[in-house]
Amino acid sequence: MNKACCFSENLEQLSRFSNYTTIGFLNSSLPPLTEQNLQYLARTVNFACRDGILEAFEMPPRFKEVQFHSCQTTNITIKRDRSYELNALAIVDSNITELHKNLGLLTKLERLYVAETLIEHVKMDELSKLVNLKQLYLIDSRIKTISSVSLSLIVMPSLKDLNLSGNQLAMVSLAKWDAPLLEKISLRNNQLQIVMMMPFNFPKLKHLDLTNNPLDCIWRRNLKQAMDERKVELWENAICTYSNQSAVAFINPSLIPMTPKVLQHFNQTVKLACQDGFLPEFHILPQYQVALFHSCQTIGITIDPAVSYKLREFAITGSNITALPKNLKLLTKLTNLHFGKTLIEHIDMDELTGLLHLNELKLYGNRIITLKSFTNSPIHMPKLEAFDVRNNQLSQLIFTSWNATLIGWMELGGNRLQTVLLLPDSFPKLRRIDLKDNPLDCH
């Protein structure tokens, strides 16, 4: 029967625990543990150190499970002239910068878990010697490359679970991997655009997780088709990299908030649209010329006062947004502005001052009760030609302070208007005004 203990005594007292098969150091400051002083633990086969100091450790041949959690363990000695029984090794929260030398000598190892380290480069030549390895976790570190120095085939005949999540991988090539039993691959939270792999080099694959990577859209489309054909469960974010696409449209998407960090993967995009999906938040980038959101539940729009924008067309329809976005008047190059079928009730025309190039203003199908300058300032829109406020709840419109001499048509139908006040010469270009379905005062 296995016994266990957890202690923080001096090494001289190790012999007191010689009959324990499992032993752990908790919050301990230990000198280097060599094979010689570990001989005091005659029956120990499972060893752990947690939240302490154990900088150096010589692996005893008889140990079967060894764990180092936050113990500052950077030096693990594995000797060539030993035959090791180890089948599980975990190293977590360590300042190691590379996997330990001679790791391939642990030929009975089945589980290797390495997390929260400073490792940047992994050479698979040593790991491919672990012929019994079933689970390989190299996660939450700084890994940028995983490669084979010899460029030879990476043979891992027993591997079933591969996890490389939470690193800095921009590209992974699994094309030269021979892992016939591999069932699960997780590459989430990296910087991957593509993963190079042969269509059938993992015949047992059941799960592939690529969540939160800036995937190349064309590659992603082909991958999804291939995984669907193989009935592999594919986990991946809906956003992918359109690095060379000037125009991007999402149809029926479910998207994470479009923050500047996410939108950096659209660095050549100038026209972006979302239709019939879910995109709750969006940061407008300086280079965008067109941004259209139709029935995408978009309610959070960020316009940075410190940025100079090129946006010409901007539309939000089918949204629960209740007010015009803050800093809208900073989009000084806008020519077309549309807000339709929203919950907006009040329009302060002061928020549109500065849009001197606005040609078309459509505010149809909302719940607008008031539309005016809340400071009673003149409304200067010198390029405006079309104005549409159909199907709102307006009971009065006053145009006497408007300076918009190019307006050619107005759509005011479907409101509660009794009067529309305008000066005779306010709109000299006006050719059409629609007032149908309003309870107009006959006088």
TrEMBL record:
Gene3D superfamilies referenced in this protein's UniProt entry, alphabetically: Ribonuclease Inhibitor
GO cellular component: plasma membrane
Secretion signal, residue range per the UniProt entry: none
Protein name: Uncharacterized protein
Keyword Repeat carried by entry: yes
Top-level taxon of origin: Eukaryota
Organism: Culex quinquefasciatus
Pfam families: LRR_8 (PF13855)
